[in-house]
Amino acid sequence: MVAVTAPTPTVSWHGTVALLLASSTGGVGQHVRSVARGLAAAGASVLVCGPAATEEQFDFTGAGTRFRSVEIPASPTPADARAVAALRRTLADEPVAVLHAHGLRAGLVATLTRPAAPLVVTWHNAVLARGVRGGLSRLAERVVARGARVTLGASADLVARAAALGAADARLAPVAAPALPPPRRRRAAVRAEFGVAADQQLVVSVGRLHPQKRYEVLIDAAARWRGRTPPPAVVIAGSGPSYLPLAARVSAARAPVTLLGHRTDVADLLAGADLAVVTSDWEARQLFAQEAMRAGVPLVATAVGGLPELVGDAAVLVPPGDVDAVDAAVRALLDDPDRRAALGRAGAARAATWPTEADTVAELAALYAELAPAGPAAGDAGTPSAGRR
Q1: From the CB of residue 145, how many other CB atoms can be counted at a distance below 10 Å?
Q2: Cα dist. 267→24, 183, 288 in Å?
Q3: Please, which of 185, 267, 279, 365 could form a disulfide with 189 given CB 3.0 to 4.6 Å?
């Protein structure tokens, strides 16, 4: 039985919040835009701070917010000191009631800034790096956990990690995937783009091309499917630093895989898909997994991070890094259309129980009201107008 999420009570909070993020091309940026849009629509004054490239990609001002550039790169560099100084200047110019940082990198800059406003940090990702970089990241985890007034974790394991490192107040705050628009093309048109025949099956994965996503596992499994009649077509949508090694692996393995690059038509891809696959080493509540299940597309995913609690028994879970397990799970579903259909229905039913974007915004507004029932508010003399940049 699937537990139904209780509706979140509506809380009216009209203060000023600064949302801080580091370099992002995917889920974190999408989440910040979703939250910013919802808070602004509910009457809060929202200032988004982050690299200029994030404004170019996610158009935070188009969501009804103000934006100030604070350049926080994806990895620690000496530029962090400049980011701290920039954030201090911004907060001096534009007083806020709450500072809410998203991700460990933004959380570290926010903590080092020592803001006067209460600091909330949402942990979106686990530290997977090893060696010197991993050691520095784990040190940053401890600093951020102890520096935030409230730590929010996108999955239960992140909450437990923050609490173990000394977080004063660690809470679960699931990240809702923004709703996809309806597909713009029919299923047949999507499949025709990739040369998928009527009797052929289409397997889709979407995400940043990064080592954490372990797309080489999917490629190696797909290479085994060349002997199927006909072989399924596999497409991976996304861009990132792993593109060249993955392209070389596809070629060497002669795998029936196409790397599509960045796509804005995920709803269309899902409309044409027979199966969705996630092969990551770790995820909290991966956006593509949510999108696939909402669309009723059967899902094979790794049993890591927050994915088991997200999907329950409405998806097929496999161990991370296991080519044999991915191969077997995908073959079983491709050979069983009734099982695929049942899994698609179960996924859509499970997705209907998840918190929505509106629920997420309401929970954050309630938290901000708890931390700053009074403070700089929209229209205060110390807060610039929405037209200021």
Answers
A1: 23
A2: 21, 5, 10
A3: 185
Share the mean pLDDT of the chain: 91
Q: What is the 3-state secondary structure (H, E, C) of the chain?
A: CCCCCCCCCCCCCCEEEEEEECCCCCHHHHHHHHHHHHHHHCCCEEEEEECHHHHHHHCCHHHCCEEEECCCCCCCCCHHHHHHHHHHHHHHHCCCCEEEEECHHHHHHHHHHCCCCCEEEEECCCCCCCHHHHHHHHHHHHHHHHHCCEEEECCHHHHHHHHHCCCCCEEECCCCCCCCCCCCCCHHHHHHHCCCCCCCCEEEEECCCCHHHCHHHHHHHHHHHHHCCCCCEEEEEECCCCHHHHHHHHHHHCCCEEEEECCCCHHHHHHHCCEEEECCCCCCCCHHHHHHHHCCCCEEEECCCCHHHHHCCCCEEECCCCHHHHHHHHHHHHCCHHHHHHHHHHHHHHHCCCCCHHHHHHHHHHHHHHHCCCCCECCCCCCCCCCCC
Per-residue pLDDT tens over the stretch 7-16 = 444 557 999 9
Decide if pLDDT at 97 tops 90: yes
Q: Where are the domains of the chain?
A: 16-176+355-371, 187-351
The CATH homologous superfamily for domain 16-176+355-371 is: Glycogen Phosphorylase B; (3.40.50.2000)
For the stretch 86-94, contacts whose Cβ atoms lie closer than 8 Å and that sit 24 or more positions apart, written own/partner, are 87/20, 87/49, 87/113, 87/115, 88/113, 90/18, 90/47, 90/49, 91/18, 91/115, 91/116, 91/117, 93/384, 94/16, 94/18, 94/47, 94/66, 94/68, 94/382, 94/383, 94/384
pTM of the model: 0.86
Which of the two residues, 214 and 7, has the higher pLDDT score? Answer: 214
Supply angle C-alpha 369, 9, 166, rounded to 5.
Answer: 50
Q: Of 3.40.50.2000, 3.50.4.10, 2.60.120.200, 3.20.20.20, which CATH number belongs to 187-351?
A: 3.40.50.2000
**Equal fold, 16-176+355-371 vs 187-351:** yes
